[in-house]
Design goal:
There is one protein chain. By secondary structure, the protein is of the alpha+beta class. The chain has a single domain, classed as Roll (SH3 type barrels), CATH 2.30.30.210. It is built from two helices and six strands; from the N terminus they run αββββββα. Strands 4-3-2-1-5-6 form a six-stranded antiparallel β-sheet. The longest helix is centred in the N-terminal third of the chain and has 13 residues. The two termini are 22 Å apart.
Length: 99
C-alpha cells in the first residue's frame, strides 16, 4: 500500500526533529562490517547516532559519509547522513533539498 501525502509529510517532520526511537538500518558506511546493521536510535547527537543493535550492543555511528534507511510508521526513507549533521533542533531551520 502506498503511503498518503499526510503520512509522508509527518514522517519528514519526524526525521527533521529527531531520530531517537526510530528503527534504522545502516545502508552504506566507511566500515564494511556495519553495512546492513539494523537497530533503534537511542540518541541523535550533533555528529553521531547512538544505535542499539538487535544483539543488545550499543554502537556509535558517524553521520558523515553514511547512508541510513529510517522507518517512520509505514514510510521508509533512505537518508544521507550528511543531511543529518547538526543538532536536531537546528535541522528545523534547514530546508530539505535532496534526500
Amino acid at each position: 500500500m502506498k503511503p498518503r501525502k499526510k503520512e509522508i509529510t509527518r514522517a519528514l517532520e519526524r526525521i527533521h526533529l529527531s531520530l531517537a526511537g526510530l528503527p534504522i538500518t545502516i545502508e552504506e558506511a566507511s566500515d564494511p562490517g556495519l553495512r546492513g546493521v539494523p537497530g533503534v536510535v537511542l540518541a541523535d547527537k550533533t555528529n553521531t547516532l547512538v544505535i542499539l543493535r538487535e544483539t543488545g550492543r550499543v554502537i556509535t555511528i558517524p553521520k558523515k559519509k553514511t547512508v541510513f534507511t529510517v522507518r517512520v510508521g509505514s514510510v521508509t526513507f533512505r537518508v544521507q547522513g550528511d543531511h543529518l549533521v547538526g543538532r536536531s533542533g537546528h535541522r528545523l531551520k534547514k530546508k530539505i533539498r535532496k534526500w
